[in-house]
Amino acid sequence: MAMFSQNPVLNGPNYSFAEVPKDAVDGLREHRFNPYTDNGGSTLAIAGADFAIMAGDTRLTSGYSINTRYAPKVFKIGGTTSSQDDANLLLSVVGYAADGEALQERLDAICKMYRYRHGKPMSVSACAKRLSTIMYQKRFFPYYVYAILGGLDEDGRGAVYSYDPVGSFEREQCRAGGAAASLIMPFLDNQVNFKNQYVPGTGVGHELKERERLPLPRNEVEVLVKDAFDSAVERHIEVGDGLQIMIITKDGIEEKVLPLKRD
Amino acid sequence: MSSPFSINGGACVAMVGKDCVAIACDLRLGLQALTVSNNFPKIFQYGDVFLGLTGLATDVSTVSDLFRYKVNMYRLREERNIAPSTFANLVSSSLYERRFGPYFVSPVVAGLDPKSGRPFICGFDSIGCIDFAKDFIVSGTASEQLFGMCESLWEPDLGPDDLFETISQALLSAVDRDALSGWGAHVYIVEKDKVTKRLLKGRQD
Amino acid sequence: MADRYSFSLTTFSPSGKLVQIEYALNAVNQGVTALGIKATNGIVLATEKKSSSPLSDPSSLSKISLITPNIGMVYAGMGPDYRVLVDRARKVSHTGYKRIYNEYPPTRILVQDVAREMQEATQSGGVRPYGVSLLVAGWDEGVMPDVESAVQGGGEVEGEKKPSGKTGGILKGGPMLYQVDPSGAYYPWKATAIGKSATTAKTFLEKRYTEGLELEDAVHIALLTLKETIEGEMNGDSIEIGIVGPPADHLLGVEGVHGATGPRFRKLSPQEIEDYLTNL
């Protein structure tokens, strides 16, 4: 089956409790369960000159089932209250939804503690390192989560930090995560960082000049995000239903939810 | 990793334009992570029809030779070139003949219908199920990346020049995110009575 | 002496003949006459349905057969052998073509396949040649002869699609008429006849045939030719006519299916034949 499918979903079930207890030859029964489930979905973050945008679809799946059409993946982090009105950070999580939620709650609690003790919100760079530590502490039973942290840095510029499940992280201009990351990431390379784009008539071979990389204006980035998700929805069954977008600027965080195809 | 489809790596994409089609492939041949050759084209021309083959390199060579033989025999027997749609059905039936011991290839066919001049593209799985697409076909280890690129860059009724730019950007950006594909590319733009072949350098890593 | 060479099919006689094939042709020349005429927009195949007894039921006898939706066939000679060839032709048009290319074979390809079958019966052990000659009529998709000649004649029309020439020698479309003999030899014809009165019929056809014939005229000429050679009465039940003409969408069985075209080959009903006969 796996040989012809080339489709990860078909390459074997990976749901929790999917394995039934097996009777062994000696009459002993072996019990086991898989603590992880892939809940699908995709996330995306782009840093602008004076803003950062984080987006994620709102579908939550297990296997071929859609568990809900509205499960947010992008969270405000580090506000003074539960309303998160004065939050200065954004976190997106994709992968195993339960771990994602646990991680989000833990990071939020830590940021709140920091705020109460220091009397100021945590900077993105500090939070970025702290998140890495949180994740690495569970090096041998990781949060099965691809996280992206967003905010504004000390100079007011958009900042995006991306993580692997065990806390390895990097600051980037943009990043796609989750089920459709492989579909969206090359598109971002091409449209945000202008990879493979050259200025016509500037020479041959190494003479050829790359198209100058300028931070994109906010309206263009928003269109890019929507286009990226519309494409991903078209070709990935685990992505769809709704598109949650959060934009952080010096004036605070703006949130909107746009519809995506639900088929 | 040990899937026969991803031992050698490679990518191929075909697109429909206005009265034209484009088909492009990368040039890498590898053995898992080791790159063996940077000049292994995966597109083959049979008369007016183009066949792209990704997958197990030995099957790419075998299958391309098999279809060269079959198309040449067709031309001798029927005194005419094979039409893209006819060739697509030939590919399908030939692959299904090996239903229980398949060639590990994911073929792509592109061409213009000799009678109507209409663009024709299609793709197959390794046992010959045809995917007749109106827009684009992708195949190979970078197929997910290509799906993302094509779905966002492609638009209907692109002229030959715009189609070339679109398919080139789609392929280059896609293979740059796939470790098993890349090392330059071949791009064919097929118009009525004219075929343009271009070689793209691309990233050499 | 001659008997020494007449039994083994695969043995040449000293004069260079395979006499069994000649005997097969003799069987053909005793058969009921069949004829075919090619028109610009179609082909007609016609033959007599001879009943040996007044008790026989001619409506259940069929000598003209559909092979593919666009190709039909008629014979002169041995009926049972013909039935075998019809089966083989129908089978090979699928196994050797439709199942490979998902389209039906062009007429010449089918004729070659049937001719190969007949030739193999002249060179294999333990078999005898087929005692039939065939007339195969079909319509091929492709460039119509009149369009081709117009382009070659330099009559260039702006914006009109021309055959690119890249498509190879013959992308010839339109009506095709072939005769196949027991030896496996095949000939393309504008009009011809096989069987008992073939010579008489061909002489008649030579006089009547003109270039640029339309299908309706061809049916007319076919009936006139048949009338010259027929032995019994001529009516809707005593003769058989098959035509290759425009797509008969009413025979499709369905309506409104996009891209579906009806068969070009069809047999005329006794009533249709009667209508032609009254206008003769």
Q: How far apart are the termini of chain C?
A: 53 Å
Q: What structural class should be given to the helix and strand makeup of chain C?
A: alpha+beta
Low-confidence stretches of chain B: none
Number of helices of chain C: 7
Strand order of the largest sheet of chain B: 10-1-2-11-12
User: Which regions of chain C are unreliable across 5 or more consecutive residues at pLDDT < 50?
Assistant: 153-170
Give the overall form of chain C: globular
Task: State the end-to-end distance of chain B.
Answer: 20 Å
Strand order of the largest sheet of chain C: 8-1-2-9-10
Give the biggest beta sheet of chain B.
5 strands, antiparallel
Strand content of chain C: 15-25%
Mean pLDDT of chain C: 89
Q: Can you characterise this structure?
A:
The complex is a heterotrimer of chains A (263), B (205) and C (280). Chain A is an alpha+beta fold and 263 residues long. Chain A contains five helices and 14 strands. Chain A has helices spanning 2-5, 97-118, 124-137, 181-191, 218-235; strands at 22-23, 29-30, 42-47, 52-57, 60-62, 65-68, 74-77, 89-95, 145-152, 158-163, 169-172, 174-178, 242-249, 252-259. In chain A, the strands form four sheets. Chain A has a five-stranded antiparallel beta sheet. A five-stranded antiparallel beta sheet of chain A has the order 7-8-9-10-11, covered by helices on one side. In chain A, α4 packs antiparallel against α5. Chain A is globular and about 75 Å long. Chain B is α+β, with helices and mostly antiparallel strands and 205 residues long. Chain B is 31% helix and 33% strand. Chain B contains four helices and twelve strands; from the N terminus they run ββββββααββββααββ. Chain B has helices at residues 57-78, 84-97, 143-153, 160-176, and strands at residues 11-16, 20-26, 29-31, 34-37, 43-46, 49-55, 105-112, 119-124, 130-132, 136-140, 185-191, 194-200. In chain B, the strands form three sheets. A five-stranded antiparallel beta sheet of chain B has the order 10-1-2-11-12, covered by helices on one side. Chain B has a five-stranded antiparallel beta sheet with strand order 5-6-7-8-9, covered by helices on one side. Chain C has 280 residues and is an alpha+beta fold. Helix content of chain C is 32%, strand content 19%. Chain C has seven helices and ten strands. In chain C, the strands form two sheets. Chain C has a five-stranded antiparallel beta sheet with strand order 8-1-2-9-10. In chain C, a hairpin with a 2-residue loop joins β3 and β4 (71-77). The model of chain C is unreliable at 153-170 (pLDDT under 50). Classes of the chains: A alpha+beta (263), B alpha+beta (205), C alpha+beta (280). Chains in contact: A-B, B-C. The interface between A and B is medium-sized, with 24 and 25 residues.
